[in-house]
Amino acid sequence: MSGSILLAEDDRSMCELLQAGMPRRGFEVTWRTSATEALATLLERDFDVVVTDLNMPGTNGIELCERVVANRPDIPVVVITAFGSLDTATAAIRAGAYDFITKPFDLDALRLTLDRALQHRRLRDEVKRLQRVVTCSRGFGEILGTSAPMQRVLDLVSRAAESDTTVLVTGESGTGKELIARALHQQSRRCNGPFVAVSCAALPEALLESELFGHVRGAFTDAKTARTGLMNKASGGTLLLDEIGDAPLGIQPKLLRALEERRIRPVGEDVERAFDARLICATNRDLEAAIEEGRFRADLYYRVNVIHIDLPPLRAREGDVLLLAQHFVHHFAAASGKAVVGVSAAAAQRLLSYSWPGNVRELRNCIERSVALTRFEEITVDDLPEKVQSYRNSRVVVDLDDTSHLPTIEEVEKRYILRVLEAAGGQRTRAAEILGVDRKTLYRKLERWGIGE
Prior knowledge:
This protein has helices spanning 12-21, 35-44, 61-71, 86-94, 107-135, 148-160, 177-186, 205-213, 230-233, 252-261, 287-292, 298-304, 320-336, 345-353, 359-373, 386-389, 409-423, 428-435, 439-448, and strands at 3-8, 27-32, 49-53, 77-81, 99-102, 167-170, 195-199, 214-215, 227-228, 238-242, 263-264, 273-274, 278-283, 307-310, 342-343, 378-379. It folds into four domains: 3-132, Rossmann fold (3-Layer(aba) Sandwich), CATH 3.40.50.2300; 148-310, Rossmann fold, CATH 3.40.50; 315-389, Helicase, Ruva Protein, domain 3, CATH 1.10.8; 403-448, Orthogonal Bundle (Arc Repressor Mutant, subunit A), CATH 1.10.10.60. Helix 18 packs across helix 19. By secondary structure, it is α/β, with parallel strands linked by helices. Strand 11 (263-264) and strand 12 form a beta hairpin.
């Protein structure tokens, strides 16, 4: 199919004729017998072209055209009428119609008109895309990475940015979740709007509710003036709910309702207000485990987890450590005015050997410290933090030649499970998947060994 048509026509025989004849000409037809029904259908799904009869009972084709142009200017409207006078043609064009065709018409002639309308829409979409490319940064800022895991992430970011769908960004602390959220915003059609971020863990429930939804004057003791909530401040842009896994249970149902209805009620006010912000959530928590433990609502999880972007830990990004280190060297050398150009081979080996539990944030801090302390053009081993210098990789190694220190099966299992848990960034659900065991089985073993959250 070349495209999809929404047809508004009160003559059912005409609807059935077009529905039967247009598919072999490349167009799928969905028809409604009134303008009101057509508008309702347009709210439910997308179409490439709207075709409407001019004279219909109730809302006529001109009014329908005006409504479509006002709410969906990207969709061209073709008006059909049996009254092909100059006045009706002028009225249709003034209402924003793309083209005008009179009854009786040949289906092939209609196809040509629809082909032009579809080409017109696609050309407009391409122009808008190119305008966004020029206006907004299409790069990923400080999100650097040539490793396969990061290339998959960046590809997903590029595709997800094109829609307003809610995104859940997960990953260990320091992996760059906020940078990903900013990249999604910068590459979206909302890039000229505000980017607003709030931590759900930093505020108590009552204050978080006020921050998100706003409040009216006198809503509580210290509410001396009215305040606009962050959801409204992010209107036209993007709202990042950071650390969503730590959101107080009491606010979660209110947040769910706001996301489903796209409306909020400021604290102390009886009237709901609409908001228009793209939502991105981020967390380093295992939300599925939090659901089982009663700390996170399942319905909210499914509402925010529409597109899931899971950031790999730095230790899983083979080759990216030195790329990022060199980038940070240039950045901090320029900021401090020092003639530091890179990392020595010995220091690079230590950087590659270290596990980076703090991920990119820890690497950034490490390089900032090293640039500040080094006396040479290259960062040396002595410039690195002590824990990076002296790090020894924690591997599960069994020396079969030394029978006096052979571990028990229980000890080998424990050490292996803890190593997998470390590699999974503490995400118990992911660790259970890698181990091939039920999550509850993993929990029981950890509890037996006295290992909590």
